[in-house]
């Protein structure tokens, strides 16, 4: 894909005037030979000068929206607040009608305000957005006046060519535009500094963005996690290379400095794990950055000191920490959980004399997108429009449940909804002509929501599961596959859950009924799997025997670090995971006999 320029937002963001263009031309001319071509970036400028030594720049940020236009249901729509006495409470949060109101109120009386995001704005979305290839979410982000976003791994769910369309506009090449709609594209730049074309070496989208107002200039560099190829469908990213986050950001930091931009923010779709799930937890206790671990903590320690702040994502956690840079100076690192439940407000004090951020003056905090504020009318209209287009499909009942069946909202390794999905996949692919499956595995990251018992929308009673709700749980529409794996390969896959790339943050496969084993988390690496305990229907798994194993195409391609699952032979492709899930709900539940949550008794966990 070629690097592209972006659409102008009338009255808010304009390209430079004639005088501004001349100034920009002078800047480019002053660059070392080839630097302008290397950057591949376009500038949005305001073109006016300002007076006074310092000015406070407001940076509003969020991440991992995943197309959640409507308030997320169940535990997916809650944040944890920690009180001073140590007690906690759950607060309902999220929904773009409320997010828009909170952001607009936050911008009041802040003439220098920037809104940025750290990726996964789209992908793995509820039906209202996913059904229309996330065009509704981009429309909402345009209305939110988002200035810039990094790409995340989910921006590549439908492939690089589709991401280019999301940026630039135009109807979907297969499905076209929804009735009565057009798609103009994102009015903000998606940044992908570390995603390059293998042949040309050039970024597939702009690597950086320069925000300017009245002489105040702030540069943004956007990257996704280097490990993106291991967590997206390989077919969609053929020909792309995903580079090291630190090397890439440091490279473009130097380019921005050569362009006279010394105030720099990194938008990184990679995150960390705070010691507490409370959004207002002090992760600088007992010392700066002591309360957070994970990839972003290591990245922060290595990034150039010239980078003034890090806005991060991917792990769906909430934190506003201070991790010292390599020079020992304090530097803010933030993340606003997910699904639009929080936003971060960071104050960057800009020194006009040095053109840099006064780092000691940086302050940052996360704020809850509460639902006790007026809804933004334009967002309500947007949701109403797209819901009307989706209604013929979304509201159709497909099953009944007797209680909440937790998936995304479960913190346990074995999730009730994970068991249900694995059972559905086993049942669908067990017939000889469908694959002859004996075992089914489901990746936990592919479970995007809970099944909630309480009625919602147009549902007549509690317990109804609609097509839209089932879609929200399984939004990727991965095709199901059945492959041959030996018992030894299956055991290796179980070990890969808790070793190698997954050792620090285990990815525990959800397993179908009849498959049992013990996971001993007091041990380390592959030893955490008790090999002698692995059984199928009560019999020890035979390392030399070949089994037919059902899984989605993401797993059978070796995704999520499960290289052993990618070694399967005699692959047979079946129906989509969503179709399989819906068929199971319909076959095993009714209004009179709703499904009960499956018992979580397949994986014995020793802690």
From TrEMBL:
InterPro entries found in the cross-reference section: 5'-Nucleotdase_C, 5'-Nucleotdase_C_sf, 5_nucleotidase/apyrase, Calcineurin-like_PHP, Metallo-depent_PP-like, YhcR_MPP
Residues in Calcineurin-like phosphoesterase domain copies: 62-317
Keyword tags: Hydrolase, Nucleotide-binding, Signal
Transmembrane segments: none
GO biological process: nucleotide catabolic process
Classification via Gene3D superfamilies: 3.60.21.10, 5'-Nucleotidase, C-terminal domain
The keyword Metal-binding belongs to this UniProt entry's keyword annotation: no
GO cellular component: outer membrane-bounded periplasmic space
Extent of the signal sequence: 1-35
A Gene Ontology molecular function term of the record: 5'-nucleotidase activity
Domain of life per record: Bacteria
Domain 5'-Nucleotidase C-terminal: 398-566
Family: Belongs to the 5'-nucleotidase family.
Name of the molecule in the record: Bifunctional metallophosphatase/5'-nucleotidase
Lineage summary: Bacteria, Bacillati, Actinomycetota, Actinomycetes, Kitasatosporales
């Amino acid at each position: 894909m070629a690097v592209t320029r972006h659409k102008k937002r009338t009255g808010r963001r304009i390209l430079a005037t004639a005088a501004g263009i001349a100034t920009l031309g002078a800047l480019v001319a002053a660059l070392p030979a080839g630097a302008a071509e290397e950057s591949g970036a376009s500038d949005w400028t305001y073109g006016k000068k300002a007076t006074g030594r310092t000015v406070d720049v407001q940076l509003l940020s969020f991440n991992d929206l995943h197309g959640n236009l409507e308030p997320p249901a169940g535990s997916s729509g809650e944040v944890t607040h920690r009180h001073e006495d140590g007690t906690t409470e759950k607060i309902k949060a999220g929904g773009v009608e409320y997010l828009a109101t909170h952001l607009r109120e936050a911008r009041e009386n802040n003439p220098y305000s920037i809104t940025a995001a750290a990726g996964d704005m789209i992908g793995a979305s509820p039906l209202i957005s996913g059904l229309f290839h996330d065009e509704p979410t981009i429309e909402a982000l345009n209305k939110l006046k988002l200035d810039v976003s990094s790409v995340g791994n989910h921006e590549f769910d439908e492939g690089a060519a589709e991401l280019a369309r999301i940026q630039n506009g135009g109807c979907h090449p297969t499905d076209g535009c929804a009735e009565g709609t057009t798609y103009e594209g994102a009015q903000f730049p998606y940044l992908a500094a570390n995603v390059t074309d293998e042949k040309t070496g050039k970024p597939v989208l702009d690597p950086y963005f320069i925000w300017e107002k009245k002489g105040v200039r702030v540069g943004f560099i956007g990257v996704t996690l280097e490990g993106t190829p291991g967590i997206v469908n390989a077919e969609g990213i053929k020909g792309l290379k995903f580079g090291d986050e630190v090397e890439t950001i440091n490279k473009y930091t130097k380019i921005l400095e050569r362009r006279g931009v010394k105030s720099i923010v990194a938008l990184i779709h990679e995150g960390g794990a705070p010691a507490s799930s409370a959004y207002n937890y002090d992760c600088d206790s007992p010392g700066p950055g002591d309360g957070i671990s994970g990839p972003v903590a290591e990245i922060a320690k290595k990034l150039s000191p010239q980078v003034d702040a890090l806005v991060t994502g991917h792990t769906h956690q909430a934190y506003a920490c201070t991790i010292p840079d390599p020079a020992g100076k304090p530097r803010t690192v933030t993340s606003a959980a997910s699904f639009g439940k929080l936003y971060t407000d960071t104050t960057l004090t800009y020194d006009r004399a040095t053109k840099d951020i006064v780092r000691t003056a940086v302050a940052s905090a996360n704020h809850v997108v509460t639902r006790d504020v007026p809804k933004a009318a334009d967002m309500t209209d947007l949701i109403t429009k797209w819901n009307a287009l989706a209604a013929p499909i979304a509201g159709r009942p497909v099953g009944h449940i007797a209680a909440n069946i937790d998936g995304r909202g479960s913190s346990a390794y074995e999730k009730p909804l994970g068991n249900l999905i694995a059972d559905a996949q086993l049942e669908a692919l067990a017939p000889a002509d469908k694959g002859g499956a004996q075992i089914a595995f489901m990746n936990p990251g592919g479970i995007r929501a809970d099944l909630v018992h309480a009625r919602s929308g147009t549902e007549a009673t509690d317990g109804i599961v609609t097509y839209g709700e089932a879609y929200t749980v399984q939004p990727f529409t991965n095709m199901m596959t059945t492959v041959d794996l030996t018992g030894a390969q299956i055991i290796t896959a179980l070990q890969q859950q808790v070793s190698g790339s997954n050792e620090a943050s285990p990815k525990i496969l959800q397993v179908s009924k009849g498959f049992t084993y013990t996971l001993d988390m007091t041990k380390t690496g592959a030893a955490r799997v008790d090999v002698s305990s692995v059984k199928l229907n009560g019999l020890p798994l035979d390392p030399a025997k070949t089994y037919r194993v059902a899984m989605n195409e993401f797993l059978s391609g070796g995704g999520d670090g499960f290289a052993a699952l990618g070694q399967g032979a005699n692959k047979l492709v079946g129906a989509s995971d969503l179709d399989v899930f819906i068929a199971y709900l319909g076959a095993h539940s009714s209004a009179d006999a709703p499904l009960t949550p499956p018992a979580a008794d397949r994986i014995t966990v020793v802690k």
